[in-house]
Q: What sequence folds into this?
């Protein structure tokens, strides 16, 4: 991993849908001590939201998790990258990936070569490789991430996944995402968690990776078994949540991007404050 990213990202960041992010929340997360904000939901390649978050903060790193290669021409991404890199040097990490074949509207059954061509276009336009990361789950794309970018950003994985990913990545960045529900009640946590997992259990790239991680067909059928939900989404008391997030680091992740899943109407600012306290950030 590039040493500068080790410092800039910190051990813990926040992953959140772009539609649920704005400048004031970004400033709050920075104040709480999180090292990065990862903007999910296939943010637009114009990167207007990323610029807004950077404008509202002073030092936190903002990353895309991820710009979908099927949705935005690389020419647009390059222009946006240059604009932001000039305005906020060293604070933006461009994450790209193939997204979900079911949602792409493209013939994405064989996405590897289009992904390589996309990286070629970014290379040719002068986007530095060490300012890029790839969404990566399978071995082939993990190797590509190590060869062509600063590293990988896997989503919906267990701490044990990081061991194999680290072997494939070598010293490259491993920025792992983890769902968290701040509830000690397992039934409540599973109900909230299942709502966030529903679509992913119908996407073949994720289902395939769940199988790689040792989950059975029964585990990922329907709404997912209790065992599956408990392994993919951490909940419980503070010690349990802290231990799960720390296990990602212990198994090879450089940084953990936490996706906080909460019930509608919950005070999000207070929830992030509690999470920061659990992790010893504030």
A:
């Amino acid at each position: 991993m590039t040493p500068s990213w080790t410092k800039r990202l910190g051990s813990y960041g926040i992953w959140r849908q772009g539609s649920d992010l704005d400048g004031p929340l970004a400033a709050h997360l920075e104040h709480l001590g999180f090292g990065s904000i990862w903007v999910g939901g296939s943010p637009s390649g114009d990167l207007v939201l990323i610029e807004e978050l950077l404008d509202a903060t002073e030092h936190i790193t903002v990353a895309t998790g991820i710009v979908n290669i099927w949705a935005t021409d690389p020419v647009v991404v390059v222009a946006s990258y240059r604009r932001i890199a000039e305005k906020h040097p060293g604070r933006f990490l461009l994450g790209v990936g193939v997204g979900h074949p079911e949602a792409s509207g493209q013939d994405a059954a064989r996405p590897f070569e289009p992904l390589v061509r996309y990286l070629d276009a970014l290379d040719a336009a002068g986007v530095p490789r060490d300012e890029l990361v790839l969404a990566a789950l399978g071995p082939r794309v993990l190797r590509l991430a190590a060869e062509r970018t600063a590293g990988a950003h896997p989503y919906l994985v267990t701490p044990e996944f990081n061991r194999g990913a680290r072997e494939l990545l070598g010293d490259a960045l491993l920025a792992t995402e983890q769902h968290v529900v701040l509830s000690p009640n397992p039934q409540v946590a599973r109900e909230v968690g299942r709502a966030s997992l529903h679509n992913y259990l119908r996407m073949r790239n994720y289902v395939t990776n769940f199988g790689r991680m040792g989950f059975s067909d029964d585990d990922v059928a329907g709404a997912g078994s209790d065992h599956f939900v408990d392994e993919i989404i951490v909940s419980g008391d503070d010690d349990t949540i802290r231990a799960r997030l720390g296990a990602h680091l212990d198994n090879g992740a450089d940084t953990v991007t936490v996706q906080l899943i909460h019930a509608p109407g919950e005070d999000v600012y207070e929830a992030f404050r509690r999470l920061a306290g659990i992790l010893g950030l504030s």
